[in-house]
Each structure stands twice: as C-alpha cells, then as structure tokens.
C-alpha cells in the first residue's frame, strides 16, 4: 500500500487471489444482477467482481483516500459512495435483490450484520450476502444449540438467514495481516421465517437470558414474565436447563409470547 492503513477503520485488505476467486465465483453473478460491495479497500475484490459484468455495481467506502484510488482505477465502471456503511441508508436498494459482498471491519461487523437483519423486506433487499468475519465472530454466528459459542448472535442471525460456512482464511491472505483467522460465510435471506413484531424484543430477550448464560433459565423467565409458570407449561420448558440448551425456535416463541403480553 502506498499509504498507511487506518486501524480504527479495521483496514486489512484481501490480497490472496485464490481466496478472491472463491469469493467471486460463489456468488454466481450474471448480467442481470445488482452488486453492492461494502468496504472495498483498494479494489482487489472489486476488480474480480467487475469481470463478471453485473448489471449495476455499487461500492460503499468511508476512507476518502481509497475512494480516490477506486475512482482512478475504475472510473465510471462502478458507482462509488463515500459514506460510513453503518450510517448509510439502504432504502433506495430495498427492492434490488442485491448480491452483497463485504470484508467487514472486525470492530463493527456484528453491528453491520444486525443492521441488515433488521431491514423489513430482507429477501427483496438482498439475494445473497457473501461476508467475511473474524473467525471467532463467524463461529458465534453459525454455532448450534448446546455449544459454548451459541448465543444472541446465533439466534438473531439464523432468524432470517440460511447460513453456510465456506472457508477459513489465514492472516497472510491480507495486508496488513490481522492477528487472527477470518471466515467466509454466505447468507441467503429466508422467504419464510418466524414472525416477530419488533426485532428489538428478540434482542432484549436474548440479552436477558445470555447475560447470565451459566444460570438456569428459571431466573430470566421470572424476570421477563410475571406468569412464568404458564410460559413454562405452554412451551414444555425444563427450568433446570441453561440458556444455551434452548434452540432458536424456542427463543422466537418466547419472544412472540412476550410481545403479545406487552402490546
């Protein structure tokens, strides 16, 4: 790089051509597709995506220095938006069926994912997400019930998404090299998912349960519900279980009951 990367922006640029090819090919881009890349950096993946000739190609980059580089390299071939991906409004893309690529900054990756999940018509907004996370975060996203990594992020992510792990990626695939491995995930929005009125309620419930993940579930149930015995019987819950022992569907059902009681 001809300039110093900014640590506060989580700038670790992908340079491994084999990994770039895997990421690009897994998307199955054709000439009818609209593509959005968040955090394109200096454009290594951008270059590979362009070869697939999508119908429209937009990138969102916060660092003005990189915007200048991208402009010099690709000019009018791509639409460059100089903005913060967390603050950016995706409203104009809400029915675009985007293919979204992102090497997400480690420090805000879960916030970005949560922002996308909260989009109301997610399956109309995005056809497929192809996202890179710090491995530790990816492990939490894909974690199964009864495992140590299972928790709030697993429950929220799998609510609206079909998620698949593709590969782990070594630090030397990036410049500068991060201290940890990364993981590539694909996420396809579900057409049918458990109806929850407000995702903030699901976030609240999972926060209450997993803030003391080693405690038995009786305590969070008593905190959330005055009639926790009724909830226990309705869902056939064993009060000796711990939060990680309840599957995703059970949390969605708890959320539904909570919403009906608090309307």
Characterize the structure shown:
The protein is an alpha/beta fold and 263 residues long. The chain is 37% helix and 19% strand. It has eleven helices and nine strands. It has a seven-stranded mixed sheet. Strand 3 (56-61), helix 3 (64-74) and strand 4 form a beta-alpha-beta unit. The chain is elongated and about 65 Å long. 35% of the residues are buried.
Describe the secondary-structure layout:
Layout: E1 13-14, H1 17-26, E2 34-38, H2 44-50, E3 56-61, H3 64-74, E4 79-82, E5 98-103, H4 109-117, H5 122-125, E6 126-134, H6 135-141, H7 152-160, E7 161-169, E8 174-175, E9 182-189, H8 199-210, H9 218-224, H10 228-234, H11 248-262
Parallel strand pairs: 2-3, 2-5, 3-4, 5-6
Antiparallel strand pairs: 1-8, 6-9, 7-9
Helix pairs in contact: 1-2, 4-7, 7-11, 8-11
User: Reading side by side through the largest sheet, how are the strands ordered?
Assistant: 4-3-2-5-6-9-7
Label the overall shape.
elongated
Q: What percentage of amino acids are in beta strands?
A: 15-25%
Helix content bin = 25-40%
Give Rg in angstroms: 20 Å
Question: If classified by CATH, what would the architecture of the largest domain be?
Answer: 3-Layer(aba) Sandwich
How many domain modules? 2
Q: Uncertain regions: pLDDT < 50 for 5+ in a row?
A: none
* Number of helical stretches of at least 4 residues: 11
Major β-sheet annotation = 7 strands, mixed
Order of SSEs: EHEHEHEEHHEHHEEEHHHH
The overall pLDDT average reads: 93
């Amino acid at each position: 790089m001809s300039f110093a990367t900014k640590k506060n922006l989580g700038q670790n640029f992908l340079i491994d051509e084999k990994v770039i090819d895997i990421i690009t090919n897994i998307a199955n881009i054709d000439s009818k597709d609209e593509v959005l890349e968040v955090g394109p950096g200096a454009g290594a993946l951008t270059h590979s995506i362009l070869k697939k000739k999508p119908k429209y190609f937009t990138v969102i980059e916060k660092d003005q220095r990189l915007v200048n580089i991208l402009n010099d390299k690709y000019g009018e071939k791509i639409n460059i938006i100089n903005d913060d991906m967390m603050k950016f409004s995706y409203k104009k893309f809400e029915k675009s069926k985007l293919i979204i690529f992102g090497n997400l900054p480690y420090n805000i990756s879960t916030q970005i994912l949560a922002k996308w999940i909260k989009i109301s018509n997610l399956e109309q907004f995005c056809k497929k997400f192809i996202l890179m996370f710090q491995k530790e975060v990816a492990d939490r996203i894909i974690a199964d019930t009864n495992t140590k990594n299972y928790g709030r992020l697993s429950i929220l992510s799998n609510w609206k998404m079909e998620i698949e792990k593709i590969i782990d990626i070594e630090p030397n695939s990036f410049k500068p090299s991060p201290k940890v491995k990364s993981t590539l995930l694909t996420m396809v929005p579900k057409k049918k998912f458990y109806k929850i009125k407000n995702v903030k309620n699901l976030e609240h419930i999972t926060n209450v349960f997993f803030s003391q993940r080693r405690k038995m579930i009786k305590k969070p149930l008593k905190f959330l519900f005055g009639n926790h015995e009724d909830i226990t019987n309705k869902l056939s819950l064993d009060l000796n279980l711990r939060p990680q022992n309840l599957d995703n569907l059970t949390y969605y059902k708890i959320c539904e009951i909570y919403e009906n009681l608090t309307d």
